[in-house]
Amino acid sequence: MGGVRELAVPFVVSGPCGVAVRDRLKHLTPQDERVLRLVGAYQGRLASRDLKARCADGLEHGAGTWASRKRGLTPQSSSRIAGAITKATHDQWALARRCQAAHIQTLEAGIRTLRHRLSLPIGAPGTKRAPGGYRSKGEWFHKSRRLAALEARHTVAVRDRQAGRVRVVRGGRRLLNTRRHLDQARLTEERWRERWEAERWFLAADGESGKRFGNETIRVTDTGEVSIKLPAPLAHLANTKHGRYTPASTVAFAHRGVEWADRVVTNRAVAYRIHHDTGRGRWYLTASWQRPTVQAVPLATARARGVIGVDTNADHFAAYHLDPHGNPTGEPHRFFYDLSGTATHRDAQIRHALTRLINWAEQTGVTTIAVEDLDFTAEKTREKHGRRKRFRRLISGIPTGKLRVRLVSMAAEHGLAVVAVDPAYTSVWGAQHWQKPLVTPHRRMSRHDAAGIAIGRRALGHPVRRRTAPPPHDRSDRAGHRTAQAGPGARGREGTRPPATDRPPGGPSPSGTRKRGPSASNTVRDAPSTHEWVQDSLMHTG
């Protein structure tokens, strides 16, 4: 086991804590769209100003400054809208801080790799765990300049973090940079401007338990009627009493509609967000609410009926069913998906593949799916893999974060638990110990199928390796039987097992010379010549 790192203990992943459903706002009149645009643009300007104030506060932010910002926004809108804007602003600032910390960690990983490789002689070979030196003086020179650039970026990022300074773009930095590459994005300036303004609108409201239908700002009745509380400067656009505007559209959530209706009827909190898809020219309403925290099942309970071990790859899931004892059952299953194209297409592909996986898991009767606790954050750096652009593109294309969230959410709806295991050596040990023994004339085993077995056995608490090879014949134990199932504390696990005839009944094996008692003959050839063979009449059939 020399050189093998310590493996993390498997654990049951906690279930989802929230739900979100969406429906389209159909049959909106031109006046309805005009009001929605005016309200979204007005509240978006308030949110932009509040975000600027929050970023200016930096680390000096506290409950007092938060309340001051909310008091400043209340006369321009309402108390509830001001609370929703300040909360969304704080969440956006906190997300930028987390991204800043991840960026610093990525820079530090690249700097460590560059310093290590630059310290080695030119052309020094690498090892399985550490890269070697650079191949030429020219490459060494260019990498030394890149090290200086990364160190400068790291210094600036650390200085910003210590000062509490973040860089946030309402509407998204990617969309902002698209403005300079309209030809490549196949957008006109007018279409880009429309999309940019729609992304900066603010049409959202947090839910309030105890209020009518669970939300006072954006209210949706149990019959699907939508009404919006207009901010004070736009109250003259109201078409119903109490400064509210009711569009002509109604909603009916096809997915989780009963659960949503149960909440609004009992006046429990439901948050809403209105979004405009400029590409399709459609308006959508998203409803979200929190679920009570569900205690995860114990690990022993999750292992009771076996698991489905799933190996995640760039284009498919490789799954294998294992019984509670860790034995592979049946045939390997592969669920393919295509991660090319738009984000919507990729999300649909992942969702479809997970649906097929969960349906198969229900057919097998298991209640647990085992997956690897993958995180490629430190593996995507250019410095770690150098010219291996294809491999970097491969691991960058695997949506580990979205996949984990999507799997946990979908599995919880079907009553399945998800166990996360350490991903170390699953592919190597799986291919070494399980790929070849399971190949038959009618079954083809891939390296990924064997990795699924390794993941499932690790989730069940069994060792991945099936059996250690017996020692050579020149050893003193004379090729005794050894298995990996023996624990490290078992005495004599490396030696031979003494014969059963050497142990007296109820006692340990005696010391001294081996004495084997006579055994009865099991073959006709060894039987005494005086023995007479008589055919049983009951066995005669004809």
What share of residues is helical?
25-40%
Query: Stretches where pLDDT falls below 50 for ≥5 residues?
Result: 500-506, 508-517, 519-542
| Shape, per Cα inertia axes | globular
User: Class by helix and strand content?
Assistant: alpha+beta
Q: How would you name the oligomeric state of the polypeptide chains in this document?
A: single chain
**Rg to the nearest angstrom?**
33 Å
Q: Round the mean pLDDT to the nearest integer and report it.
A: 83
Characterise this structure.
This protein is of the alpha+beta class. It has helices at 30-57, 63-73, 79-119, 137-163, 173-178, 182-185, 189-199, 257-265, 299-303, 343-364, 382-385, 389-396, 400-413, 426-435, 447-460, and strands spanning 11-12, 18-25, 204-205, 218-220, 226-229, 244-245, 271-277, 282-290, 307-312, 316-322, 328-336, 368-372, 417-421. The strands form three sheets. A six-stranded mixed β-sheet has the order 1-13-12-9-10-11. The chain has a four-stranded antiparallel β-sheet with strand order 2-8-7-3. The two termini are 64 Å apart.
Give me a quick take on this structure.
With 542 residues, the chain is α+β, with helices and mostly antiparallel strands. 39% of the residues lie in helices and 13% in strands.
For the structure shown, list the relevant keywords.
alpha+beta, 542 residues, 4-stranded antiparallel sheet, 15 helices, 39% helix, globular, 6-stranded mixed sheet
Secondary-structure topology with pairs:
Blueprint: E1 11-12, E2 18-25, H1 30-57, H2 63-73, H3 79-119, H4 137-163, H5 173-178, H6 182-185, H7 189-199, E3 204-205, E4 218-220, E5 226-229, E6 244-245, H8 257-265, E7 271-277, E8 282-290, H9 299-303, E9 307-312, E10 316-322, E11 328-336, H10 343-364, E12 368-372, H11 382-385, H12 389-396, H13 400-413, E13 417-421, H14 426-435, H15 447-460
Parallel strand pairs: 9-12, 12-13
Antiparallel strand pairs: 1-13, 2-8, 3-7, 4-5, 5-6, 7-8, 9-10, 10-11
Helix pairs in contact: 1-2, 1-3, 2-3, 3-4, 10-13, 14-15
